[in-house]
Specification:
CATH class: Mainly Beta
Number of domains: 1
GO molecular function, one term: structural constituent of ribosome
Protein name: Large ribosomal subunit protein bL27
InterPro entries: Ribosomal_bL27 (IPR001684)
Strand order of the largest sheet: 1-3-6-5
Distance between the termini: 72 Å
CATH architecture: Beta Barrel
Strand content: 35-45%
Number of strands: 8
Oligomer: single chain
Organism: Candidatus Gottesmanbacteria bacterium RBG_16_37_8
Pfam families: Ribosomal_L27
Length: 81
């Protein structure tokens, strides 16, 4: 039998890496094509004019302009004007 208890000292000391989700460009900020506006899981925000959605639900700008957030039909819409 072992005299030193070492096996379980770090058990449960694991955590997942954060995914850095959230808004990257806020309303009023200037976006150029390709700029990521929001990283999200699911469609918390929906794309509007000048914005497209990637396969991982990332919203990004497709034209140059100012980022604008608005609500339409109980949906949060992001657009580049």
């Amino acid at each position: 039998m072992a005299h030193i208890k070492t096996g379980g000292t770090t058990k449960g000391n694991r955590d997942s890496i954060s995914k850095r989700l959230g808004v990257k460009l806020y309303g009023g900020q200037v976006a150029i094509p390709g700029n990521i506006i929001i990283r999200q899981k699911g469609t918390k925000y929906h794309p509007g004019n000048g914005v497209k959605m990637g396969k991982d639900f990332t919203l990004f700008a497709v034209k140059e302009g100012t980022v604008n957030f608005k609500n339409r039909l109980n949906r949060k819409i992001v657009e580049v004007i």
